[in-house]
Amino acid sequence: MSAWYWLALGVALIAIEAFTPGFAALWLGASALLVALVVWLAPTIDWQLQLAAFAILAVLSVVLWFTIGRRATGDPAASGLNRRAAQQLGAIGTLVGPLAHGHGRARLGDTTWSVTGPDLPDGCSVRVVAVEDGRLRVAAADDRAPDAATPTP
User: Fold this and answer.
1) Which of 55, 86, 127, 147 is deepest in the core (most CB within 10 A)?
2) Topology given in CATH for the domain delimited by 84-148
3) What pLDDT score does 81 carry?
């Protein structure tokens, strides 16, 4: 097989990567391009050795991507991407109506959220302390409820 076959295969695999997720076709294409380079530099290599080189390079490149490359990009689940409620941890908002019997609504930025927490009056400033089943758990922003103020002597 000539280097042109490997070059065409490599370009085709890289082009396929544009339409598929996951980067696997990209690394297979890169492996085919490396075999094309080797065959171009040493054209007397028989086709069995070319296929073996492609297989080894393909496996190595994909394994390296999934071990080293993924570690460098981080865990997408831990990023909070597409988990809007988790992104609100620590945010401070204002209750829209009272937080009664453990349930209410709070405005955080330009959105109102369903919240749970201790009973608090309308307009109280709250801080998001946890996310439970898609609901935000809140506490008074000054870490104490307004009615829990220390009594005056």
Assistant:
1) 127
2) OB fold (Dihydrolipoamide Acetyltransferase, E2P) (2.40.50)
3) 59
Question: HSE (CB half, 13 Å, CA atoms) of 38?
Answer: 18
Domain ranges of the chain: 3-74, 84-148
Residue partners of 88: CB distance under 8 A and separation at least 6:
108, 113, 128, 131, 136
Q: Which residues neighbour 108 within 8 Å (Cβ) at sequence distance 6 or greater?
A: 88, 91, 92, 93, 128, 136
pLDDT in tens, 41-92: 998 889 999 999 999 999 998 888 878 766 655 555 555 556 777 778 888 9
Residue 126 phi/psi, 5° resolution? -125, 155
